[in-house]
Structures are given as C-alpha cells and as structure tokens.
Write a structure and sequence with these properties.
By secondary structure, the chain is an all-alpha fold. It contains four helices and no strands. The radius of gyration is 31 Å and the shape is elongated.
Amino acid sequence: MTPLRQRMIEDMKLRNLSAWTQEVYVRYVADFARYYGFLANCQRADKLALCRRLLQVTETTEPPEPEVPDRTMLLQTLLRKDPSRCPRCNKGHLNRFAVLPPSPPLHHRPHAQGRSP
C-alpha cells in the first residue's frame, strides 16, 4: 500500500467513516487517478512517445486486424455443412433471387375505431 493511500485511510478513520465508505472512497480516487493519470487523453501522445523512447521501441505499427469471416463461412463452421446446398437433395446450390423486406411487428397493429377492449 502506498504511503498516500495509507494516509488517506488514516484520515478517514479519524473522521469516523465506516469501512464501506473508506473502501468506496479509495476505489473512486483510484479510478479518478487512473482517468487523469499517466495516460490521460490530454497527455497520451507525449507520454506514449516517452514510454517508447524509454523502452527503446522504434516500431509503432499497429498489429494487423484479424480477418472477418463471411456469413457463409460462419454458417458452414457452426452447422458443419454447406449452407448454400439444397437441404432436400444435398446436391444443388441455392441461389438468392430476391430479398424480402422485413414484416412489421405484430404488436403494432392499429386498433379498430370505436371498439373498447
């Protein structure tokens, strides 16, 4: 435990705060310090440059983003069969020829005028 945290806890004990209140205060102060601390947004670029220089890291390239599999590949992995195959004969391939718009939800049907429930 750091001396500053110990001093804060001692001061809270002198003020007769409960253990729960002390724990919450310490947690919030730690979060506050983390938010405005070494890598706060306003200092991040300068501090990261300092970290890289101190660690003697010269390469600053970002790691490559992982490839996102397409929908067919995901379905094939999950179902363990080719989703584009005909489910009846398992020989031909299904082709999309139209995309239907989504239907309106059932619970939004208008009520009849003049009728009471």
